[in-house]
Protein backbone atom coordinates (compact mmCIF):
# COMPACT_ATOMS: atom_id res chain seq x y z
CA UNK A 1 0.00 0.00 0.00
CA UNK A 2 1.38 3.40 -0.98
CA UNK A 3 2.24 5.84 1.75
CA UNK A 4 0.20 9.09 1.52
CA UNK A 5 2.17 12.11 0.35
CA UNK A 6 2.96 14.94 2.74
CA UNK A 7 0.68 17.22 0.71
CA UNK A 8 -2.29 14.84 0.98
CA UNK A 9 -1.61 14.38 4.71
CA UNK A 10 -1.77 18.17 5.13
CA UNK A 11 -5.05 18.32 3.21
CA UNK A 12 -6.38 15.56 5.45
CA UNK A 13 -5.42 17.63 8.52
CA UNK A 14 -7.09 20.70 7.03
CA UNK A 15 -10.31 18.74 6.46
CA UNK A 16 -10.04 17.41 10.02
CA UNK A 17 -9.70 20.93 11.39
CA UNK A 18 -12.74 22.16 9.46
CA UNK A 19 -14.74 19.16 10.68
CA UNK A 20 -13.58 19.79 14.26
CA UNK A 21 -14.80 23.40 14.09
CA UNK A 22 -18.16 22.19 12.82
CA UNK A 23 -18.34 19.53 15.53
CA UNK A 24 -17.46 22.01 18.30
CA UNK A 25 -20.18 24.34 17.03
CA UNK A 26 -22.63 21.42 17.04
CA UNK A 27 -21.67 20.38 20.58
CA UNK A 28 -22.26 23.89 21.90
CA UNK A 29 -25.41 24.48 19.85
CA UNK A 30 -27.16 21.16 20.51
CA UNK A 31 -25.82 20.17 23.92
CA UNK A 32 -24.86 16.73 22.54
CA UNK A 33 -21.78 15.11 24.01
CA UNK A 34 -18.48 15.20 22.10
CA UNK A 35 -18.72 11.41 21.78
CA UNK A 36 -22.15 11.61 20.10
CA UNK A 37 -21.04 14.30 17.67
CA UNK A 38 -17.77 12.55 16.81
CA UNK A 39 -19.68 9.34 16.13
CA UNK A 40 -22.12 11.20 13.84
CA UNK A 41 -19.27 12.72 11.85
CA UNK A 42 -17.39 9.44 11.47
CA UNK A 43 -20.50 7.40 10.70
CA UNK A 44 -22.26 9.81 8.32
CA UNK A 45 -20.60 13.09 7.47
CA UNK A 46 -17.15 11.74 6.58
CA UNK A 47 -18.78 9.29 4.17
CA UNK A 48 -20.90 11.90 2.39
CA UNK A 49 -18.92 13.34 -0.53
CA UNK A 50 -21.12 16.45 -0.58
CA UNK A 51 -19.92 17.38 2.93
CA UNK A 52 -16.38 17.86 1.58
CA UNK A 53 -14.93 16.08 4.61
CA UNK A 54 -14.29 12.66 3.08
CA UNK A 55 -10.49 13.16 3.28
CA UNK A 56 -10.51 13.99 6.98
CA UNK A 57 -8.15 12.06 9.24
CA UNK A 58 -10.56 10.59 11.78
CA UNK A 59 -8.01 10.07 14.56
CA UNK A 60 -6.75 13.67 14.26
CA UNK A 61 -10.35 14.91 14.12
CA UNK A 62 -11.25 12.94 17.25
CA UNK A 63 -8.17 14.27 19.08
CA UNK A 64 -9.05 17.87 18.14
CA UNK A 65 -12.70 17.67 19.17
CA UNK A 66 -12.11 15.79 22.43
CA UNK A 67 -9.14 17.97 23.36
CA UNK A 68 -10.71 21.30 22.42
CA UNK A 69 -13.89 20.48 24.33
CA UNK A 70 -11.93 19.19 27.34
CA UNK A 71 -10.11 22.54 27.67
CA UNK A 72 -12.86 24.82 26.33
CA UNK A 73 -13.37 26.55 29.69
CA UNK A 74 -9.64 27.33 29.87
CA UNK A 75 -9.70 28.46 26.23
CA UNK A 76 -12.71 30.68 26.93
CA UNK A 77 -10.81 32.36 29.78
CA UNK A 78 -7.88 33.03 27.45
CA UNK A 79 -10.21 34.38 24.76
CA UNK A 80 -11.95 36.62 27.29
CA UNK A 81 -8.57 37.93 28.41
CA UNK A 82 -7.71 38.88 24.82
CA UNK A 83 -10.93 40.82 24.22
CA UNK A 84 -11.33 44.56 24.55
CA UNK A 85 -12.69 45.68 27.88
CA UNK A 86 -16.45 45.35 28.02
CA UNK A 87 -16.58 42.51 25.48
CA UNK A 88 -17.94 39.16 26.58
CA UNK A 89 -17.49 35.72 25.09
CA UNK A 90 -21.20 35.66 24.22
CA UNK A 91 -20.61 38.57 21.85
CA UNK A 92 -18.41 36.34 19.66
CA UNK A 93 -20.28 34.54 16.90
CA UNK A 94 -20.57 30.81 17.79
CA UNK A 95 -18.64 29.60 14.73
CA UNK A 96 -15.82 32.02 15.54
CA UNK A 97 -15.83 30.70 19.11
CA UNK A 98 -15.48 27.15 17.77
CA UNK A 99 -12.60 28.23 15.53
CA UNK A 100 -10.82 29.91 18.45
CA UNK A 101 -11.34 26.91 20.74
CA UNK A 102 -9.96 24.44 18.19
CA UNK A 103 -6.96 26.64 17.42
CA UNK A 104 -6.21 27.20 21.10
CA UNK A 105 -6.29 23.48 21.79
CA UNK A 106 -3.60 22.99 19.16
CA UNK A 107 -1.55 25.95 20.39
CA UNK A 108 -1.73 24.79 24.02
CA UNK A 109 -1.50 21.03 23.60
CA UNK A 110 0.50 20.24 20.45
CA UNK A 111 3.94 20.91 19.03
CA UNK A 112 2.61 22.15 15.70
CA UNK A 113 4.18 25.54 14.92
CA UNK A 114 1.93 28.44 15.89
CA UNK A 115 2.17 30.02 12.44
CA UNK A 116 0.85 26.81 10.85
CA UNK A 117 -2.02 26.57 13.33
CA UNK A 118 -3.03 30.21 12.95
CA UNK A 119 -2.82 30.04 9.14
CA UNK A 120 -4.98 26.90 9.04
CA UNK A 121 -7.68 28.40 11.25
CA UNK A 122 -7.63 31.72 9.40
CA UNK A 123 -8.26 29.78 6.18
CA UNK A 124 -11.26 28.18 7.87
CA UNK A 125 -12.43 31.57 9.12
CA UNK A 126 -12.30 32.93 5.55
CA UNK A 127 -14.80 30.23 4.59
CA UNK A 128 -17.38 31.54 7.04
CA UNK A 129 -16.75 35.26 7.48
CA UNK A 130 -15.64 38.51 5.90
CA UNK A 131 -12.30 40.21 6.50
CA UNK A 132 -13.41 41.98 9.70
CA UNK A 133 -14.08 38.68 11.47
CA UNK A 134 -10.90 37.13 10.03
CA UNK A 135 -8.91 40.06 11.44
CA UNK A 136 -10.65 39.63 14.78
CA UNK A 137 -9.79 35.91 14.97
CA UNK A 138 -6.22 36.64 13.88
CA UNK A 139 -5.84 39.31 16.55
CA UNK A 140 -7.18 37.09 19.34
CA UNK A 141 -5.01 34.14 18.31
CA UNK A 142 -1.89 36.29 17.99
CA UNK A 143 -2.48 37.95 21.37
CA UNK A 144 -2.92 34.62 23.13
CA UNK A 145 -0.07 32.93 21.27
CA UNK A 146 2.34 35.69 22.29
CA UNK A 147 1.48 34.97 25.92
CA UNK A 148 1.73 31.18 25.85
CA UNK A 149 4.33 30.66 23.11
CA UNK A 150 6.41 33.82 23.29
CA UNK A 151 9.36 32.64 21.19
CA UNK A 152 9.61 33.94 17.65
CA UNK A 153 9.98 30.49 16.09
CA UNK A 154 6.96 28.86 17.76
Would you give an account of this structure?
With 154 residues, the protein is mainly alpha-helical. It has one domain (9-148): N-utilizing Substance Protein B Homolog, Chain A, CATH 1.10.940.10. It is 70% helix and 0% strand. The chain has 7 helices and no strands. It has helices at 6-30, 34-43, 58-70, 72-82, 94-109, 114-128, 131-148. Helix 1 (6-30) packs across helix 2 and helix 4 packs across helix 5 (94-109). The longest helix has 25 residues, at 6-30. The radius of gyration is 15 Å and the shape is globular. The protein starts with 5 loop residues before the first helix and ends in a 6-residue tail after the last helix. Mean pLDDT is 89; it is low at 1-10.
Question: Features of this protein?
Answer:
mainly alpha, N-utilizing Substance Protein B Homolog, Chain A
Give a short overview.
It is built from 7 helices and no strands. It has 154 residues and is mainly α.
Report strand %: under 5%
Main CATH class: Mainly Alpha
Q: Nearest-angstrom radius of gyration?
A: 15 Å
**Main sheet makeup:** none
Q: Which CATH architecture is right?
A: Orthogonal Bundle
CATH topology: N-utilizing Substance Protein B Homolog, Chain A
Count of DSSP strands:
0
Overall 3D form: globular
* Alpha-beta classification: mainly alpha
- The domain tally reads 1
Number of helices: 7
Low-confidence stretches: 1-10
What string gives the helices and strands in order? HHHHHHH
State the assembly state of the protein chains: single chain
CATH superfamily: NusB-like
Mean of all residue-level pLDDT scores: 89
Helical fraction:
over 70%
Q: How far from one another are the termini?
A: 35 Å
Amino acid sequence: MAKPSRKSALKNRSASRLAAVQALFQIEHTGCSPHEVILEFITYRFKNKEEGLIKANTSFFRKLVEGAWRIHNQSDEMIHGALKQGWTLDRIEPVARAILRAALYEICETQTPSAVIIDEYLNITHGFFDEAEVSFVNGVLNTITQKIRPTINS
